[in-house]
Amino acid sequence: MATDQAHEQNNACVKGDGGAVGLTENPAALRRWMIAGPEVVRVISEFESSLLRARREMVILMNSLGMRTGPIHRLSHKMDDFALVLKLT
Predict the structure, then answer these.
(1) CB of 79 within 8 A of CB of 55?
(2) CA 12, CA 16: separation in Å to the nearest integer?
(3) How many other CB atoms are found less than 10 A from the CB of residue 19?
(4) Whether the Cβ atoms of residue 85 and residue 3 lie closer than 8 Å to each other
(5) What pTM does this model have?
(6) How many other C-beta atoms are found inside a 10 Å radius of the C-beta of residue 29?
(7) How far is residue 63's CA from residue 73's CA, in Å, rounded to a whole number?
(8) Tens-of-pLDDT digits for all 89 residues of the chain?
(9) How many separate domains does the chain show?
(10) What residue numbers bound the domain in which 66 lies?
(11) Residue 56's pLDDT is what?
(12) CA Rg, the chain, in Å?
């Protein structure tokens, strides 16, 4: 499942029936959104940080082993693209 689809699915679960309109008409849906929103942001931020940390550690390890870092740089660009998608959603 694409990241934006997963994010939209999560939004739908939190908001309940009625979408954004449902938030204003359903107090329970609004409470869920208010409680879950900051936690969703925290989890996404934590995930992005772990991606950056893992990339740095992998490059350091590959350099210490004398391995080519070309493949890891290509992977890191893909990770950057993925992190950007997360920020845009």
Answers:
(1) yes
(2) 6
(3) 11
(4) yes
(5) 0.46
(6) 20
(7) 12
(8) 455 666 666 666 655 555 666 667 778 878 888 888 888 888 888 888 888 888 888 878 878 888 776 776 777 777 777 877 777 76
(9) 1
(10) 3-88
(11) 84
(12) 18
